[in-house]
Amino acid sequence: MKKININKIGLALMLITALSACKKLDLAPENKFTDANYWTTTDKANNVLNTAYSQISNSSYFFSMEAMSDNAYNGRGDNNGVASLAAGTYDASLGRLKGEWGDHYRGIKTCNIFLENVDKVTSMDATLKARMKAEARFIRAWHYFLLETWWGDVPLIEKDLTIDESKVIARTPKADIVAFILKELDEAATSLPANTALAEADRGRVTKGAAVALKARVLLYESRWADVITECEKLIGSTANGNYALFNSYEGLFLPQNEYNSEVIFDLQYLPPSVANRSYSDFRDMAPISVGGRLNAIAPTQELVDSYLMTNGKKPGEAGSGYDENNPYVNRDPRLTNTVVYHLYQWKDRDNSIKTIYTKPGSDPNPDPTKRFDEYAPGSTSSPTGYYTRKYFDPTSTVADFGSGLNLILIRYADVLLMYAEAKNELSQMDAGVWDKTIKAIRSRAGFTASEAINFPAGDQASLRNIIRDERRVELAMEGLRIFDIRRWKTAETVLSGWAHGAKFGAAGVDNGYIRANLRTFDKNKNYLWPVPRDERAVDPNLTQNPGW
Q1: Which is it for the CA torsion 158, 163, 165, 167, positive or negative?
Q2: Which of 42, 54, 38 is nearest to 5 (CA)?
Q3: Which residues contact 154 (CB under 8 A, 6 or more apart)?
Q4: What are residue 340's DSSP bridge partners?
Q5: DSSP secondary structure letter of residue 347
Q6: Of 9, 234, 269, 395, which residue has the fewest beta carbons closer than 10 angstroms?
Q7: What is the distance between the alpha carbons of residues 527 and 521, in angstroms, rounded to a whole number?
Q8: For residue 356, what are the β-bridge partners?
């Protein structure tokens, strides 16, 4: 973490080593590091809590998540299983399922160990101890939220289990897991500081606003619209739970000099390679080849590109939009350029030099035969869709491998505004006032100025629903949230069935010339829940399986 030292040795290292060897819900480590001999100082307790922070997620999951959805395609191998998950070609033996299940329960185990033992540190300041307990409860709730979102019913574990206990534990109903998460977040919020009260040395730690925002997201996924509104209003127009606002630049929101800005509510913390071993280089396999990319692993789809409006607020191809098929990226939502790299894109590099990116086959006017190209070519290292990613490019990253310490945002204020707009519309409460402080504010920040794009549109609830959903898609594109949205909206069966497409560089007469990148299927009778990992059920016969698997 930027300000939280997660590189401590001692218990934290022992914990990581022990937990990484676990093969099921809970394998008690052989080293007895949770006894009273360890829990003697605040620093030692903090080491364990910092380990819990390090287990929240990882950059590989963050960046590859979008390829589970219709926003992107993983065309190189099966990075984190996302190609199999998107195409519907997986079963209970998929490694990603076992890996994510284990990752979350390892994180839960760390939180349980901390909560069971921290009171042994009698010298710790009481207020600090209450805050640290609240942080651990938030992190544990985060893990359970993802578990119940993917699997539905999952085992609820509130203490550090013995080996024998872990072999017989059963799944807890999803409704009970959700109730537990909401209770944990409510209670954690009472002891967490607002972001305005957080010392600079503690930046990156969980705040009261993060607990409120996560609760809103949990409720959103449950379609509890009135409750979503209640939680969002604790952050919109109120400073009681923190002070948040849209950052003044969409592009700047994702640059390292603007970390911890007014929009960030909760993020995944990293450190530059020059500072410590807490960085990532995933972007190396997302960037154009000609600016240093190695090969393209995560490629935005044509479906995502099509979702960006024209600057006049109309959809491409809509009457009066001004869309030019020969210049398809002109006069588009400015967020497209901040997110996706397309043909003739003007790439601003680390030294502020500009490089034109040529993705259309045969278009590079000065091809260098000694170098690889960005141009689309089936089976090459270039993008399988003809698109690359710009969002989260770190201008301070290392040239050789794009090594970066840029924090990855997990919850931001724009999402709160979008949740609020969606909930208001679902309760038929969307009006010009709500629109102006949500969708209009977000579009204005993005760079829209035309009245047709930013003013409250005429239309019924269904048309407004489509507008709000499309706004979520483009505002949050390549941030890993699309897969959760299409699952909760029950639209995955539509958007993940058939071909995912790329730019119009494909065969003439086939899908209007758009690249056929990946054929996908989604079975609505089973794919809305992941199967419980095969290896987990082999160890614990009390783990039942989800329907259809």
Answers
A1: positive
A2: 54
A3: 144, 147, 148, 171, 172, 174, 177
A4: 389
A5: E
A6: 9
A7: 10
A8: 346
User: According to the model, what pLDDT value does residue 37 have?
Assistant: 85
For residue 71, CA distances in Å to 150, 152, 354, 455, 492 come to 19, 24, 27, 27, 12
Q: Where are the beta strands (DSSP E) in 413-534?
A: 498-501, 516-520
Please give the distance of CA 170 from its chain centroid, rounded to a whole number.
29
Mean pLDDT in residue range 143-154? 98
Return d(Cα 73, Cα 305) in angstroms, integer: 13
- Does 117 have pLDDT greater than 50? yes
Residue type, 442: I
Helix (H, G, I), strand (E, B) or coil at 360: coil
Q: Write the CA distances from 51 to 24, 76, 108, 270, 429, integer angstroms.
A: 19, 32, 11, 13, 43
Q: Taking a C-beta distance cutoff of 8 angstroms, is the pair 114, 49 a contact?
A: yes
Residues 235 and 245: their CA atoms lie apart, in Å, by 9
Name the phi and psi angles at 449, rounded to 5. Answer: -130, -25
Q: Which two structure tokens, joined as six digits, stand for 493?
A: 């069966």
pLDDT over 80 at 17, yes or no: no
The sign one gets for the Cα dihedral 45, 46, 49, 55 is negative
**Where are the strands (E) in 229-339, listed by range?**
264-268, 298-300
What's the whole-number mean pLDDT along residues 223-239? 97
| Residues in the chain, total | 549
What residues contact residue 227 under an 8 Å CB cut-off, 6+ apart? 219
Residue 10 has pLDDT above 70, yes or no: no
Pairing of strands 498-501, 516-520: antiparallel
DSSP string for 115-183: HHHGGG-TTS-HHHHHHHHHHHHHHHHHHHHHHHHHHSSB----S---HHHHTT--PBPHHHHHHHHHH
The encoded tokens of residue 313 equal 């607020």
* % pLDDT > 70, the chain: 93
Closest Cα partner for 97 from 45, 142, 134, 61?
61
Q: How many CA atoms lie within 13 A of 313 on its CB side?
A: 16
Q: pLDDT-based confidence at 2, cuts 50/70/90?
A: low
CB contact at 8 A, 203 and 2: yes
Alpha-carbon span 59 to 392, nearest angstrom:
11
Average pLDDT, the chain: 93
Least confident of 32-36, 61-65, 79-83, 233-237: 32-36
The closest of 2, 547, 544 to 271, measured between CA atoms, is 2
**Torsion on CA atoms 63, 143, 204, 251, rounded to nearest 10:** 30
Determine the Cα angle at 279 with ends 275 and 281, to 5°: 130
Amino acid (one-letter) located at 207:
T
> Coil, helix or strand for 284?
helix
CA distance 188 to 137: 6
With beta carbons less than 8 A apart as the criterion, state whether 46 and 201 touch: no
**pLDDT tens, 460-519?**
999 999 999 999 999 999 999 999 999 999 999 999 999 999 999 999 989 999 999 999
